[in-house]
């Protein structure tokens, strides 16, 4: 399933507490209220160029998305990461605004605060506003927002900061005083009350590891799958962008590239054992969603002959599960919104809430076994399996075989329908395990969450 299919799926679901349709890109105030409302509730998507029935109304241009992106960034406070993209769908083009669940509520659009309640967008009253402010004040301050004691402008990599400004301006971001580093950092929520934050140190600190040793990244290439002997081991430190760059260099140094000649072609085709785009996406997720407050934490990359593991010392946000990460649509909850925002400005994050599905899809396109996420006490583990490493290594029972034989490509089934089809003698727990095993094998895609989850047959063959 590609981006077009994902957007068309949202169109097919219709409006809900997480989906809003707006007919015209010129209805900027309506769009601004909808984005603000979703930030203040569960997050979701606003689809522009669509009527209330989900009908695509016409052809929008890239310029329309650029104008809307700039408008929203100027009129919604505090600054927050959301993505505005132009998507091709059947019948034309729509602008999709993907919005995470906001971490710094209340969010304000043109002086007013809005929430989404069912299908309605409501301006909050004074009592609701007080409740939101009190709830926010009681929450523990995020580590990335805490003051970095003793950190000064001179401790930051100015070249990297200037590059961030240029990239942000290319994406339509506007700064109040672009030539003043302290003002730029304040605009990016990386400075508060004249003092730099921990996020500024993570992103731009030249010697961040001296103040925060947990920011280091360890990369190891092992000789065997048991991990008893290593071929190469490196410990990287510096700004998060440097860690990402060095980790990718390490991966490319040790990941094998296969070359083959296809019939009728003179030139050979090169194919890496792993999809580098997905590896980079996995590293970005590890760097922006990890728990920086844990002094024993970090990020590691482990290369084995048959797999690659990326670990970070974070945990999946409440409500997210490894199964949901593999699904086409799931909630987006940013653990470190300020750090995520700057990664987005560097074009290292494309769509809010869709990165993990892109990883799964790219692996399937390469006919690889789908990657596996594990949410353990020690942190989040993401495992990639190399080409030829047991693409489908799951035992299929008779119930599962009957289901796969009866489902066409892209056809879906819910768990209650599966139970009914199988007949008596299977519990909900057994049915859930059957479906989860087929998801792990890449034979089904979970769509949605909770009791309403459906499972769509993929193109993967047994």
State the gist of this model.
The chain has 462 residues and is of the alpha+beta class. Helices cover 35% and strands 21% of the residues.
Structural overview:
The chain is of the alpha+beta class. The chain folds into four domains: 136 residues, Schlafen, AAA domain (Methyltransferase, Cobalt-precorrin-4 Transmethylase, Domain 2, 2-Layer Sandwich); 69 residues, no CATH class; 173 residues, Heat Shock Protein 90, CATH 3.30.565; 60 residues, Arc Repressor Mutant, subunit A (Orthogonal Bundle). 35% of the residues lie in helices and 21% in strands. The protein is built from 16 helices and 21 strands. A six-stranded mixed sheet has the order 12-11-15-16-18-17. Strand 1, helix 2 and strand 2 form a beta-alpha-beta unit. Helix 2 packs across helix 3 and helix 15 packs across helix 16. The radius of gyration is 23 Å and the shape is globular. Pfam families: HATPase_c_4 (PF13749), SLFN_AlbA_2 (PF04326). This is Transcriptional regulator.
């Amino acid at each position: 399933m590609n981006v077009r299919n994902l957007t068309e799926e949202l169109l097919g679901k219709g409006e809900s507490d997480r989906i809003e349709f707006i007919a015209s890109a010129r209805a900027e105030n309506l769009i601004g209220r909808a984005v603000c409302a979703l930030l203040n509730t569960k997050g979701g998507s606003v689809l522009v160029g669509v009527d209330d029935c989900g009908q695509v109304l016409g052809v929008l241009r890239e310029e329309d998305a650029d104008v809307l992106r700039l408008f929203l960034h100027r009129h919604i406070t505090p600054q927050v990461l959301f993505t505005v993209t132009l998507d091709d769908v059947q019948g034309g083009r729509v602008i999709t605004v993907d919005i995470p669940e906001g971490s710094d509520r209340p969010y304000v659009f043109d002086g007013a605060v809005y929430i989404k309640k069912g299908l309605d967008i409501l301006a909050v009253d004074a009592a609701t506003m007080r409740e939101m402010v009190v709830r926010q004040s009681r929450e523990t301050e995020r580590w990335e927002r805490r003051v970095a004691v003793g950190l000064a402008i001179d401790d930051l990599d100015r070249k990297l900061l200037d590059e961030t400004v240029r990239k942000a301006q290319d994406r339509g971001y506007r700064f109040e005083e672009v030539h003043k580093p302290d003002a730029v950092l304040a605009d990016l929520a990386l400075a508060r009350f004249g003092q730099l934050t921990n996020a500024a140190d993570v992103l731009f600190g030249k010697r961040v590891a001296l103040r925060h040793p947990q920011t280091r990244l360890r990369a190891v290439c092992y000789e065997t799958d048991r991990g008893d002997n290593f071929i190469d081991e490196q410990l990287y430190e510096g700004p998060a962008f440097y860690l990402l760059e060095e980790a990718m260099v390490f991966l490319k140094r040790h990941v094998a590239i296969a070359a083959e000649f296809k019939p009728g072609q003179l030139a050979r085709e090169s194919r890496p054992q792993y999809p580098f785009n997905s590896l980079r996406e996995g590293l970005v997720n590890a760097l922006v969603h990890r728990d920086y407050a844990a002094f024993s934490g970090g990020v590691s990359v482990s290369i084995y002959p048959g797999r690659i593991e990326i670990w970070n010392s974070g945990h999946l946000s409440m409500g997210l599960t490894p199964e949901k990460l593999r699904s086409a649509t799931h909630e987006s909850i940013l653990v470190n919104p300020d750090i995520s925002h700057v990664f987005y400005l560097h074009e290292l994050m494309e769509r809010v809430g869709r990165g993990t599905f892109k990883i799964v899809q790219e692996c399937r396109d390469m006919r690889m076994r789908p990657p596996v996420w594990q949410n353990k006490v020690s942190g989040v583990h993401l495992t990639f399996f190399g080409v030829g490493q047991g693409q489908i290594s799951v035992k299929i029972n008779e119930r599962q075989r009957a289901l796969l034989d009866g489902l066409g490509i892209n056809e879906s089934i819910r768990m209650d329908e599966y139970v009914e089809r199988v007949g008596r003698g299977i519990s909900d727990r057994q049915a859930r395990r059957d479906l989860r095993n087929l998801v792990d094998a890449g034979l089904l895609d979970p769509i949605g969450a909770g009791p309403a989850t459906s499972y769509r047959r993929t193109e993967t063959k047994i």
